[in-house]
Design a protein that fits this description.
This protein is of the alpha/beta class. The protein has helices at 28-40, 57-66, 76-83, and strands at 7-10, 16-21, 46-50, 72-75. It has 3 helices and 4 strands; from the N terminus they run E-E-H-E-H-E-H. Strands 1-2-3-4 form a 4-stranded mixed β-sheet.
């Protein structure tokens, strides 16, 4: 099976990041994909983009379980608010 994150971005400084966008549900198969990606391609930086970092519940548990395979988690709602974008 193949896994492709949602976006690939090469920044001006040369840094390459892959973005996975989730709106509120993360399945165990997503975490498995992230784990396999990090094992096979350790130099790949994967960023999880979520509307808001969850504080409790199943979504928080899944995010916590996948953190070790992610470069970082981007809470897009905060940046959208700074730009005046409503989601």
């Amino acid at each position: 099976r193949q896994y492709r994150p949602d976006f690939w971005v090469k920044w001006r400084g040369g840094e390459e990041l892959y973005y996975e966008v989730k709106s509120g549900y993360i399945a165990q198969k997503d975490i498995t994909k992230w784990r396999r990606l990090s094992q096979r391609y350790p130099s790949v930086k994967l960023v999880l983009a979520v509307p808001k970092i969850p504080r409790q519940g199943k979504f928080k548990n899944k995010v916590d379980a996948g953190k070790k395979y992610l470069d970082h988690i981007w809470e897009v709602n905060v940046d959208y608010k700074k730009l005046g974008i409503k989601i």
